[in-house]
Design brief:
Length: 502
């Protein structure tokens, strides 16, 4: 084993790779091995299918937010476009995660300095918490891409000798993170408050200067996207979809509160903001007695928890944004022999209270790997393996295969129901409207309006399932379409001028 490590380090030296301690190399290798089953997952997860559909659209020359819609900034869709298919999307995520873990390790070296045991514990907790299925670590989501930019910015800004150029670059990194997902923007105020609390107002001129530069850096990549979409003639659509529509996520899991007054409707949000404010004030008051590390990590967890609870939605991948500070707090609790070892109980209690109070979902880990082992060992067939992810996957593959063999890239198809993004992503075909998911229609349009738009530009195929009827297009089907195929519970209608002659 020692000989193997020696050879690996020699290869690293030859390639001028950073010196990685053996324990970290084992951790990174373990993380990669744990991600291998995700490379063979079927097309099934709703968010991934939307990303892949929009990514395929980019590859075929369609314009995001004009021809295809989703309510996130563009970088995740562009990453999907680079990947080209789900396998490479997962591979990119795997290597991205390895880089993220390495940079997090570098951050622990700054925060824990010579305490190698704390560095190990924090890094290992972070590595596996962002990898295992428990918090959707194997699923492609924005959080797993954006956190490396926050970590990179902190590494730059925690240097006491950082210059204006470094502050600007850190701002750019935070801006890029926000272009993966808007909640990443809440990581930017952390460092500003950290400066104020640790340096005090006596250095207000320097803090104001650095804050201004940080804001300019943060705005730079975002403004570049504004210029790009302005050139495409769809700047209003881009701003609305990627930024303004996310405002609707606030308290969106409480639709019954829509008719209530602003204060009542947003009371939970205001209470959470008050907690962040109060926590920051307490840190400022006791700043002399607290270490810089404790102040930074406490601010980090406060703002992360605020960001992940914006919509009050219990999706486990949201919680990944808070894993960094939680890992550092846990390492402090387990290793350090100081007053702060006791103090970290307060932010840790808040960290674990949030997923409990909001009833965050979680996904079992052991069954995920068990079903992969059964498939890899030949015990389960591919069809059986796919069925264990979600009912209807094998049907979606059959529909996509039919579409791929019966149409061209320029032909438009329309499917109604939650499986539509899967079929679009697999077949590399797109609807005649910009919405690729049924909830897009329900949230941002209506079935009646979409039916009218489809009638104005009839697609080559319309696909309906027994579980998700669409009576609003019944008249269009009778007038211009023929039923040409049935795949399980799905009926495939072809426009009359495209239908084969019987």
């Amino acid at each position: 084993m020692k000989l193997l490590w020696s050879k690996l380090h020699k290869i690293g030296d030859l390639l001028h790779l950073p010196n990685i301690p053996n324990w970290l190399l084992v951790t990174l290798s373990s993380v990669f091995l744990l991600r291998i089953p995700s490379f063979l997952e079927p097309y099934f997860y709703g968010d991934e299918m939307i990303y892949m559909t929009l990514g395929q659209g980019v590859r075929q020359g369609l314009t995001l937010y004009k021809n295809l819609h989703d309510n996130k900034p563009p970088l995740l869709y562009l990453t999907a476009a680079v990947a080209g298919n789900l396998f490479w999307f997962k591979v990119i995520l795997a290597f991205w995660s390895l880089v993220t873990i390495f940079f997090f390790y570098k951050l622990t070296r700054v925060l824990f300095e010579k305490n190698t045991r704390a560095q190990k514990i924090a890094t290992i907790i972070f590595a596996f918490a962002t990898t295992l299925p428990l918090l959707e670590g194997l699923t492609v989501n924005s959080e797993l891409f954006m956190i490396v930019f926050t970590i990179g910015a902190f590494l730059i800004l925690l240097n006491d000798k950082v210059k204006i150029k470094g502050v600007y670059i850190a701002g750019i990194l935070l801006g890029i993170g926000a272009l993966y997902k808007i909640p990443a923007a809440f990581d930017a105020p952390i460092i500003v408050l950290y400066w104020i609390i640790t340096k005090g107002f006596r250095d207000w001129k320097n803090i104001l200067k650095n804050t201004t530069v940080l804001i300019i850096g943060f705005a730079t990549p975002i403004l570049i996207t504004f210029v790009w979409y302005f050139g495409k003639g769809i700047l209003p659509e881009y701003i609305k979809a990627a930024f303004l529509q996310n405002v609707g996520y606030l308290s969106s899991f409480r639709p019954e509160d829509v008719q209530k007054s602003f204060i009542v409707r947003n009371a939970p949000l205001l209470i959470r903001a008050a907690v962040v404010f109060l926590g920051s004030i307490i840190l400022f008051i006791f700043r002399v007695k607290l270490s810089k590390k404790f102040i930074l990590v406490s601010l980090w967890i406060l703002f992360s928890l605020f960001a992940i609870t914006l919509s009050e939605r219990p999706y486990p991948h949201y919680f990944i944004q808070a894993i960094g500070p939680i890992s550092i707090l846990l390492a402090t609790f387990f290793v350090e022999k100081s007053v702060e070892q006791s103090l970290v109980v307060l932010p840790l209690t808040l960290s674990f209270f949030v997923p409990f109070y909001y009833k965050f979902w979680y996904y079992p880990t052991l069954p995920y790997y068990t079903r992969f082992v059964r498939f890899a060992a030949g015990i389960d067939t591919k069809s059986t393996y796919f069925d264990k992810f979600s009912i209807g996957i094998n049907r979606d593959y059959k529909i996509a295969d039919f579409l791929a063999n019966s149409s061209t890239n320029s032909d438009r198809v329309f499917m109604w129901g939650p499986d539509s993004p899967t079929v679009y992503a697999l077949s590399k075909r797109f609807p005649p409207i910009k919405y690729v998911a049924d909830y897009h229609v329900m949230d941002f349009s209506s079935k009646a309006i979409v039916a009218k738009n489809i009638a104005a530009d009839p697609p080559k195929f319309i696909i309906l399932t027994n579980s998700y009827p669409y009576p609003e297009i019944g008249a269009l089907l009778k007038k211009k379409y023929l039923l040409i195929n049935r795949i399980d519970d799905a009926s495939i209608y072809s426009r009359i001028d495209f239908a084969p002659v019987k």
